[in-house]
């Protein structure tokens, strides 16, 4: 196993994460739960010290979770945050910690939301809800990514 580290949100980090997601989808796609809601979410991360702002999106309208670079022309919700806030959320130890930090970050203006936050609630609630029957290797994706991430 490689101990090489990649800067969070660098091109190399994104490529490695994309490879892991593709591997999990190929191996376990039929065993992963469908998203609890259809949503098209644009995400912009600003003030990244080692690159220009990053524009990406999450799309669940096809029955699976798709995360790609580039913004969608038509979207339900757009979220903008800075690199430090994104890194803090990435490093949160659990979905519960993520959710506890979310609302204060929104109220402090560290996360800007365009559209209806309620559109995202089913996805966020799935993260903190009862665990579903997901293969162990698929559940461990976050730990695999964290192992090679340098913030």
What does this structure look like?
The structure is a single chain. With 151 residues, the protein is α/β, with parallel strands linked by helices. The protein has one domain (6-145): Nonspecific Lipid-transfer Protein, Chain A, CATH 3.30.1050. 39% of the residues lie in helices and 21% in strands. It has a five-stranded mixed β-sheet with strand order 4-3-2-5-6. A hairpin with a 7-residue loop joins strand 2 (40-46) and strand 3 (54-59).
Kindly list the characteristics that best describe this protein.
two-stranded parallel ribbon; Nonspecific Lipid-transfer Protein, Chain A; globular; 151 residues
Helical content (DSSP H or I, runs of 4+): 25-40%
Task: Give the biggest sheet.
Answer: 5 strands, mixed
Instruction: Report the total helices.
Output: 6
Terminal CA distance reads: 20 Å
Indicate the radius of gyration in whole angstroms: 15 Å
Mean pLDDT: 86
Structural class: alpha/beta
User: How many domains comprise the coordinates?
Assistant: 1
Q: Enumerate the spans where pLDDT stays under 50 for 5 or more consecutive residues.
A: none
For the secondary structure, the number of strands is: 7
Question: Helices and strands, in N-to-C order?
Answer: EHEEEEHHEHHHE
CATH top level label: Alpha Beta
The best one-word shape is: globular
The CATH superfamily is identified as SCP2 sterol-binding domain
Q: Estimate the strand proportion.
A: 15-25%
Quote the CATH topology. Answer: Nonspecific Lipid-transfer Protein, Chain A
């Amino acid at each position: 196993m490689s101990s090489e580290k990649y800067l969070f949100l660098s091109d190399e980090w994104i490529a490695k994460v994309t490879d892991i997601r593709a591997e999990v989808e190929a191996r376990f796609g039929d065993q992963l739960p469908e998203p609890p809601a259809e949503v098209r979410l644009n995400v912009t991360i600003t003030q990244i010290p080692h690159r220009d702002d990053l524009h990406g999106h999450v799309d669940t309208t096809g029955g699976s979770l798709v995360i790609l670079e580039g913004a969608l022309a038509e979207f339900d919700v757009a979220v903008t945050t800075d690199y430090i806030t994104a890194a803090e959320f990435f490093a949160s130890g659990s979905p519960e910690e993520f959710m506890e930090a979310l609302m204060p970050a929104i109220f402090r203006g560290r996360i800007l939301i365009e559209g209806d936050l309620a559109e995202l609630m089913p996805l966020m609630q799935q993260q903190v809800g009862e665990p579903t029957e997901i293969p162990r290797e698929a559940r461990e994706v976050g730990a695999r990514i964290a192992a090679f991430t340098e913030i």
